[in-house]
Design brief:
641 residues, eight-stranded mixed beta sheet, globular
Length: 641
């Protein structure tokens, strides 16, 4: 029986009444026809297959895609699963699934045979069947169910919390804290502490800003109270946990001080120089920086072992991710306390190394660059975001074409909904500097330094938007129009401006397919993720997926899992393709980790093939010797030849 290549089908064979066989084929075991007894060779089934059925029982499940013979040869295994131990079924199917169309693994789940089918040797253990079909699109992959994805991410998050190098170091209990800065992030962090009944002192030298922040906190908790999420008693307890102050001396007897001012190295260093002279010797100093080098931030303090980076994601009281940044001098006791605090606050802490952007924002750099390059080459913001994951708020990253591609891939929001270079949807006004001053500055502390570090400049379109006053939702305009509220509306003037930029840069605009949008944006994330692993900035690829699931909205798909399922060989082929296509974009240089992974896979495959071939030859020799023994016995010989 031949089945189409583009849609794998399931065929089930079991004995019907009177010894006949019911053969079910098609998209599922719903289309049946009955044949009187075993099907002879030459009538759709080979004698070898009948022999396998007689040997392993009547219940056989196999998947075919039209090239069954070549698949069997590649897998070194038969394309059927019969009455055999459950572990063997799983092993065979897991080996088989790698060769299905699109190189996307099928998801298998247990099914129970119908009452009319024959019982298995192992009661209660049923064969496996494909859960979803596989598309033949080059970027297609099998989508796990929502519950499966969430369960996998929860498992990865638990593994991220258990850091082996911190075993034996008990983190101390944080009972009080101080937050420096009453802005969006400072207020959110203070709310996180107060909601867990940790006494927090919110400090800012601007009294009006301090009071406004406290009013926002009360408004947020009032909303929770009106919706029945918290009780009146809980509401009162949270307010009692918050104290306001406009002097640094207010944090002298707290367990931890978290700085949450804007991204400026000089300001942060000056603040910690003052705090270091006030707080106790065992107080932990933490910075909420999203990109800056924490070793430079704490270079002037007298207790470098008590310093750590705590990167909360906006809004801090909502987002479940917390990046714990390990400095060069951070002690294991301090890191253990920071991880424990993250779990106390209900976050999923992930330990990261100290580099530009750490894990999430560093990967996001190449992602935003590719989205902007796609806009220059012919895509529109809504097209990019729709086909990609909700990594970005392309408000200020792209147009609707980009957004749609990203969202279709699995992200909650497209690049245009996130501002560049700050991926937390806070708008351009938070982190954008004057484009002219950034281009002429050699400082690596600028927020848009990621756009111009080397190679092709990615910020031309964003420059024009900012200079025209379109800085995101706060100004009711960015890549989209927000004059009617928070819902983005396409703006033809922005799309016309993007076309003019392409013309000025001498880039001919073309129709860009969603497959290219997805591959360029997501594989740029993947390649940078492998580079992060190469440098030891992340402990494992599962930690990277946790960062993007809980910090950037990639709840349906995650970049590193996507790469694992796509296959190392295909990932490398497409990265090299884009490297040839975009020679002036340095982030397309393949990561060493991808090259090493491909080499390891080739070596393992060669070992398996050699082992299988040796086993085949040994079996042939044993069969030949057995036949010779039988021949000798028939002739009456007393000894084997």
């Amino acid at each position: 029986m031949s089945l189409t290549h583009s849609q794998p089908r399931l065929a089930v064979s079991d004995p019907g009444p009177g010894g006949g066989r019911v053969r079910r084929s098609g998209p599922g075991p719903t289309c049946c026809r009955r044949t009187p007894g075993p099907v002879p060779a030459g009538r759709g089934i080979s004698a070898a297959r009948q022999s396998r059925r007689r040997r392993f029982g009547s219940w056989a499940v196999y998947v075919s895609n039209g090239c069954n013979r070549s698949i069997t040869k590649d897998c070194k295994m038969s394309s059927w699963v019969g009455r055999m131990p459950r572990n063997l079924q799983v092993r065979m199917m897991s080996g088989y699934k790698r060769f299905l169309p699109g190189s996307s693994p099928l998801l298998f789940q247990s099914i129970s045979p119908s009452p009319s089918s024959s019982p298995l040797l192992n009661p209660g253990r049923a064969p496996l069947r494909p859960l979803l079909s596989v598309k033949s699109s080059p970027t297609a992959r099998t989508m796990s169910t929502k519950n499966e994805v969430e369960a996998r991410i929860r498992q990865y998050a638990e593994e991220a919390c258990n850091v082996k190098e911190l075993e034996g170091f008990e983190g101390k209990q944080i009972k009080s804290g101080a937050v420096i800065g009453a802005g969006t992030m400072g207020g959110g962090i203070a709310m996180c502490l107060a909601e867990k009944h940790i006494q927090v002192r919110l400090i800012d030298k601007d009294a009006s800003m301090l009071q406004n922040c406290f009013e926002r906190m009360k408004t947020y908790w009032n909303s929770s109270l009106s919706k029945g999420k918290i009780t009146r008693e809980e509401w009162e307890n949270r307010l009692k946990c918050v104290d306001l102050s406009n002097t640094v001396e207010a944090c002298k007897d707290v367990d931890i001080v978290i700085e949450a001012v804007f991204e400026d190295m000089k300001v942060k260093k000056e603040i910690f120089k003052q705090i270091d002279q006030v707080v106790a010797d065992d107080t932990i100093l933490a910075s909420n920086t999203s990109t800056l080098n924490i070793d430079h931030i704490f270079s002037d303090v007298s207790r470098p072992h008590n310093t750590v980076g705590l990167h909360f994601f906006s809004p801090a009281q909502v987002m479940p991710l917390l990046e714990v940044i390990r400095g060069e001098n951070s002690s294991k006791q301090t890191l253990s306390t920071a991880m424990k605090l993250g779990k106390t606050l209900g976050k999923s802490p992930v330990l990261a190394g100290n580099c530009f952007g750490f894990i999430g924002n560093r990967m996001f750099e190449s992602y935003t660059k590719e989205a902007l390059f796609l806009l220059e080459e012919g895509a529109l913001p809504h097209e990019v975001s729709a086909f990609l994951p909700p990594l970005c708020d392309l408000d200020l990253l792209g147009t609707r074409q980009v957004d749609e591609a990203i969202q279709e891939w699995g992200m909650v929001m497209g690049p245009s909904g996130h501002w560049i270079p700050h991926p937390q949807g806070t708008g351009a006004g938070r982190s954008w500097h004057s484009p002219c001053s950034v281009r002429s500055s050699s400082s690596t502390e600028k927020g848009v330094e990621c756009l111009i570090r080397s190679g092709r400049y990615a910020g031309t379109i964003a420059d024009k938007l900012v200079l025209s006053g379109r800085k995101g939702q706060k100004t009711q305009g960015g890549f989209y129009d927000y004059s009617q509220g928070r819902n983005p509306v396409r703006d033809t003037s922005v799309e016309e401006m993007i076309g003019k930029v392409s013309q000025e840069l001498g880039i001919p605009r073309r129709k860009i397919q969603k497959e290219e949008i997805v591959e360029r944006c997501i594989l740029s994330l993947v390649n940078e993720g492998y580079k992060i692993l190469d440098e030891g900035m992340a402990r494992s690829w599962t930690d990277i997926d946790v960062v993007y699931a809980y910090g950037y909205g990639a709840r349906n798909q995650q970049p590193m899992t996507y790469a694992k399922e796509l296959g190392t060989k295909k990932v490398l082929e497409r990265i090299r393709k884009f490297q040839r296509q975009l020679p002036d974009v340095p982030h397309w240089k393949p990561a060493q980790g991808i090259l090493d992974a491909l080499r390891d896979e080739d070596q393992l495959r060669a070992q398996q093939q050699k082992k299988s071939w040796n086993h085949h030859n040994r079996s042939n020799r044993e069969t030949r010797d057995s036949r010779r023994m039988k021949t000798v016995r028939k002739k009456g010989a007393t000894e084997p030849l």
